[in-house]
Amino acid sequence: MNRLLLLEDGSIFKGRGFGAASDATGEVVFSTGMTGYQESITDQSYNGQMLVFTYPLIGNAGINRDDYESIDPTTKAVIVKEFARVPSNWRSQMSLDEFLKNKKIPGLAGVDTRKLTRIIREHGTMRGMIIDAEDDLGHAFDQLKATVLPVNQVAQVSTTHSYVSPGKGKNVVVIDFGLKHSILNELNQRDCHVTVLPYNTSAETIISLQPDGVMLTNGPGDPTSLPHVLTMIQEIQKKFPVFGICLGHQLIALANGASTFKMKFGHRGFNHPVKEIATGRIDFTSQNHGYAVDAASIDKEKLLVTHIELNDGTVEGVKHRYHPVFSVQYHPDAAPGPHDAAHLFDQFMELMDAWKETKKNA
């Protein structure tokens, strides 16, 4: 089935449809990861976005039960140079084509993804639409220009009900802004008793659970669309250790007086070098974000910048000067990507131990 990708700048890309046969509209972004397409597609941080893979062949290992980052992905579309019709892997349960059909996500293959990526790098992320080749182009472009991207995307992907992943260790509350299952896996591996709460949970509810620590997860969209969350963070950071990842990092910065900005085309992929300022240590990291913390806006009386991205110098980590709070812009849980930064979960465990000891001796 011949299909087209339209961009709001007037560009048109021809391709062949696979996956769901439906049309799609969303923000077109690209990922530089060479592997991990299943984890990427099911990452809720791609909510409302049309995901372009720069690696030329996608789907050769199929889809398996272990690599879901969410069960019901909200990625708008998958765009590739070539997809594997017949996967070959001992864990494979279905092809990428079958998976996208099941999840009602359209795919587009045969696209010159190098050219498409260069357009995005030059002009920034933009709205796109996938339609049938026979559709009226003029009408489609009018619809595309009239499309309004969603504002509070977190509400679409956060859990609506609290749930528990039991463990015998530390009592950790996780605030779900669109979490990846790999974050829970890292906490479970450390035998944490995890309670996952919706994004709009009040500080009072969190305090009533008396956690050893609070995790703020990744998620999609503009962090400034969640002003009520900032009040919650301002309350809990005085009482418990807090660890923020990606969107959680941005929200911690906002709650402490900083501002954020939309990046030209974001960081999406698994090869971003990040430097820890205090030690000079460099980790290669997994990233997926379109917004960043404005370094010039950080109140140095409250926050200390701990990490920077070596390619563009953007802020990749902060910690609070007076409260047991730290955060990173990247994904230490990886999945997919390098596991260089998994030690940050151990750092969170140590912070909770130290905080408990401080309270005991107070």
Automatic annotation (TrEMBL):
Pfam families registered for this protein in UniProt: CPSase_sm_chain, GATase
Positions of the catalytic residues: C246 (nucleophile), H331, D333
Catalytic activity field: hydrogencarbonate + L-glutamine + 2 ATP + H2O = carbamoyl phosphate + L-glutamate + 2 ADP + phosphate + 2 H(+); L-glutamine + H2O = L-glutamate + NH4(+)
Keywords linked to the UniProt accession: Amino-acid biosynthesis, Arginine biosynthesis, ATP-binding, Glutamine amidotransferase, Ligase, Nucleotide-binding, Pyrimidine biosynthesis
Chain sites annotated for binding L-glutamine: S45, G219, G221, L247, Q250, N288, G290, Y291
EC number of the protein: 6.3.5.5
One of the GO BP terms on file: glutamine metabolic process
An MF annotation (GO) of this entry: ATP binding
Name of the top EC class for this enzyme: ligase
Domain Carbamoyl-phosphate synthase small subunit N-terminal: 1-131
Pathway the protein acts in: Amino-acid biosynthesis; L-arginine biosynthesis; carbamoyl phosphate from bicarbonate: step 1/1; Pyrimidine metabolism; UMP biosynthesis via de novo pathway; (S)-dihydroorotate from bicarbonate: step 1/3
Region: CPSase, residue numbers: 1-170
Annotated family: Belongs to the CarA family.
Record NCBIfam families: CPSaseIIsmall, PRK12838.1
Assembly and oligomerization: Composed of two chains; the small (or glutamine) chain promotes the hydrolysis of glutamine to ammonia, which is used by the large (or ammonia) chain to synthesize carbamoyl phosphate. Tetramer of heterodimers (alpha,beta)4.
Function as written in the Swiss-Prot or TrEMBL entry: Small subunit of the glutamine-dependent carbamoyl phosphate synthetase (CPSase). CPSase catalyzes the formation of carbamoyl phosphate from the ammonia moiety of glutamine, carbonate, and phosphate donated by ATP, constituting the first step of 2 biosynthetic pathways, one leading to arginine and/or urea and the other to pyrimidine nucleotides. The small subunit (glutamine amidotransferase) binds and cleaves glutamine to supply the large subunit with the substrate ammonia.
Protein name listed in UniProt: Carbamoyl phosphate synthase small chain
Lineage: Bacteria, Bacillati, Bacillota, Bacilli, Lactobacillales
